[in-house]
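Weekly modeling sync, notes
Attendees: AB, CL, MP (scribe)

Item 1: holo prediction request
CL wants a bound-state model with fe (ii) ion before deciding which constructs to order. AB pointed out that an apo prediction alone won't tell us much about the pocket. Agreed to run with the ligand included and paste results into these notes for async review.

Input as submitted:
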Amino acid sequence: MDTSTTPQGFEDLVGDRQVFFQEYFNRKPLLRRGALDGRTRDLVSVRQLDDIIALETVSPAYLRIAKDGRGVPGKAYTRTVTDRGAALTETVVAEQVYELFRSGGTVTWNALNHVLPAARHLADLFAHTFACPSEVVAFLTPAGKDGYAPHHDPVDVYVLQIEGTKDWRIWEPPPGRRADKASHRPEDLGPPAIETTLRAGDVLYLPYGTPHAAAAKDQVSLHLSVTVEPRRWRDLLADTVQHLLQDPGFDGYPHLADPATPDTAATLGALTARLAALLTGADTAAETDRLRETGRARAGAGRPREFERLASADVLAPAALLRRSPVPLEIGPSDGARSALLVNGHRLNVPDAVADALRGLQDGRAVAAARFFPGVDEARSVHVAQGLTRLGVLETADRTRS
Ligand SMILES: [Fe+2]
């Protein structure tokens, strides 16, 4: 994946990968002091949060405010944007957010990865590492205030302390891990297993279901929580079954007569056996690869920079090396001179020599734009290669695939 603008790799955050997965992952909290020393500002700053909230419209879906351990209703800091009397959208009102913050509210940005490139890269990194959906949430807490009351989250949380300090209390995950979100009464939890103060640069990992509470100390605290939504075996198996159910054998639409007719029950029996056979016969190594890829491809995972790609196609040098992209391409039969290409919903006819050139690149080889189209001059070859690059059939070979 492209991590060129990511200031951190996964090991910068959690330390040795093997130790992390053997000792901590999905087992117990991990605290790494100073893991991001001197590099936190590359991720996000308080100033950037000011800028984001100053945008002309900010959907209230991105913002939550909690005060005294409870959520503040959205109407306390939103208004309706109207145009000639007609309601357009709801937006956050920065002044009201600031007022709530001054009076002790914790401000939370959900899905900061939607609006901030550095947070997006962080979410990409985690989605790629775990093949699970990942989000980046920012918490800004005024000095001396509790953020949220003791609770646990349904997601793994990686806390990156960016500015200020925050006191954390962490309790052992209760027996029977819970993949829900729930509050706890402190008296039910007993003494915390860990009590610590996070400083800028510290990283804390909490497996899902770990009860925790945090409070800012003598200055404003900003931390990022990178969340990873676990895909447990039941989630993965449901995905596998869903995938197998795409088989056309399951297309039928029965009338579930009441009471069930013997025919319906017999068909259900046959289809159950068919599904069982598909499951038993599945290539589990290939299915593991598919599950990993679908996990990485979810929202938050890396996407190509399409504008950059299109702009680079416009200035394609004759010597630029091109290869087939991962975009599916169908090459139809030749009519004697031209062949049909089907790509991204586009159908176009190309000279057979171009179709052959594309077939010749199926093995991952790269070719210079000037020599892509055999038998024509360089300029025409580059022109045709440009067209196919814009369509996504070709890509420059120096692009890093995510
Ligand atoms: Fe939490």
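Recorded for review: The pocket of fe (ii) ion is lined by residues 151, 153, 212 (CB under 6 Å).
Action items: CL to compare against the apo run; MP to circulate these notes.
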